[in-house]
Design brief:
The complex is a heterotrimer of chains A (248), B (209) and C (91). Chain A has 248 residues and is of the alpha/beta class. Chain A folds into two domains: 7-99, Elongation Factor Tu (Ef-tu), domain 3 (Beta Barrel), CATH 2.40.30.10; 117-242, Rossmann fold (3-Layer(aba) Sandwich), CATH 3.40.50.80. In chain A, 20% of the residues lie in helices and 32% in strands. Chain A has a six-stranded antiparallel β-sheet. A five-stranded parallel β-sheet of chain A has the order 9-8-7-10-11, with helices on both faces. The radius of gyration of chain A is 18 Å and the shape is globular. The longest helix of chain B is centred in the first third of the chain and has 6 residues, at 67-72. Chain B is globular, with a radius of gyration of 18 Å. Chain B is 5% helix and 29% strand. Chain C has one domain (3-85). Chain C is globular, with a radius of gyration of 12 Å. Classes of the chains: A alpha/beta (248), B mainly beta (209), C mainly beta (91). Chain B binds chain C through residues 36-43, 84-86, 124-125, 152-154, 169, 189, 191-194, 206-208, and chain C through 1, 3, 6-7, 45, 47, 49-52, 54, 56, 61, 63, 66, 68, 70-71, 73, 75, 77.
Amino acid sequence: MAQLKWQLGTVLEIRQETPTVKSLILDLRDWTTHFAGQHVDVRLTAPDGYQAQRSYSIASPPEDKYLMLTVERLEDGEVSPYLTDVLRVGYQVELRGPIGGYFVWNARDSRYNDSPLLLVAGGSGVAPLMAMIRHRAISNSKRPTTLLYSSRFYEEVIYREELDRLVANDTSLRVIHTLTRRQPQNWTGYGRRIDRAMLAETAWLPEEKPLAYACGPTALVETVANLLLELGYESGRIKTERFGPTGG
Amino acid sequence: MAEQFISRGFKGRRRGTNSELKGRIPPGQYATEEFPVLSAGPTPRTLLERWDFSIYGEIAEDLKWTWGEFLKLPRETATVDIHCVTKWSKLGTVWSGVSVDTLLEGINLDAQPDVGYLIAFCDGGYTTNLPLADVRGGKAWIAYEFDGKPLAPEHGGPARLLVPHLYFWKSAKWVRGFKLVKEDRPGFWETAGYHNYGDPWKEQRYAGD
Amino acid sequence: MQDSDLRLDGNAAGGLLNEIFPFEMTSAEATCICCGTVKPIGQLMLYHHGMGAVLRCADCDTAMIRITHIRGFYRLDLSGISYLRIPDEIH
């Protein structure tokens, strides 16, 4: 694998996903391809040379022409407020990637062929899992897949309508939401943080030899990974990506 | 070599230096009101019943205090400026603890003049090295209070070394003792390319500076 | 403040490791010299201290990889690893 070089992406579109989350659609001249689950490093440079760098998961599937990054604005963040507040269509962003080979899923990978997928997301951790779900849909894969998605409020559920649409058209895809802080009236989904009982009710059984991916705030990811181990999942089949201490 | 791309509209978190404070801020630093937590590992959670502070090494003496004994030692409060090599400085920080001079009283250093260095060792495995002279004469403390409250674990509690005249990586968090030695032995960051001494006023950040 | 607030995992070190190794490193498997656990680097605990990156064993906290990048030189301490198994392409 060659050494990744920093390259420039031009902002083609900025999409408001939720009050605090935006997706950036980028045109990269030197991009080759990527795997669902990989990320890029974004680097910002101030006129005096000061730099700040953060990683962002690629939310778009490999089949898309342009790259999508979904960014949650962190109140005390250094990079995310720039990406969500300052960037405009036509601006450029410096990034390198794709990075990652551990937290990836490829529909054409023959290993784990009969493994149903369990995707567990906390907040903006849904981004790389959405790349997987979009890639799965475009590949016409019918791999039984469950997304368990934890958000604080209904308004903060990212990609909500697209997920509803995908589920409506695909019986092999299941999306289960839990809203941890407040639930709308007539809410029939879960209304608490992910716990052992919730996973026991929603996750594939260990006998089904599932493959699990968990992504989101570090505390949530570690809780989920430990619970899946307790439920009998093989540790080699639980893949995790921690996003740090962000709210989830 | 290609010119570095500049991110349009990006200023970054750093602040310029208020000219009033200029004399108190070493070169290349900026003042912050925050107290950033930087960690190279998980926060140790040593129970106070198990905590002790030792001084031993290439010396005749072997000293140890339990937490209870440590709290009975003369307590000092110091207001100092601290400077992190990652460029932030925090002015007027208030700490309470035991002066290292107090701890070294039990050691006949005059009789052992070739013992010139110490290695501070800590829960979690962190180490840093210092000349003995730099922790004597009112220059260093083992601090267990910050800002009038017990030192929080993420900032090094129950107790950390405080050596404010050097870059703050020398003020080892979760310190458990000193090993006094004749030959200097670079510690965790010193072996990773950082300066062996670390004087912020001479901007000694990296080896070779 | 929890420990979980201070760490990421090795996935976030993928870019930095690629500056040194011409391979995708998050899926490289590392054997901890202290407890013998074998894990992909993506699963190690990354403490991206402002002074350098420290990757620790998820089981015993041993510092397996330390990296600093100072004045044009990378300093790499791999003494916490007894074996590193690197795939030569992304599978």
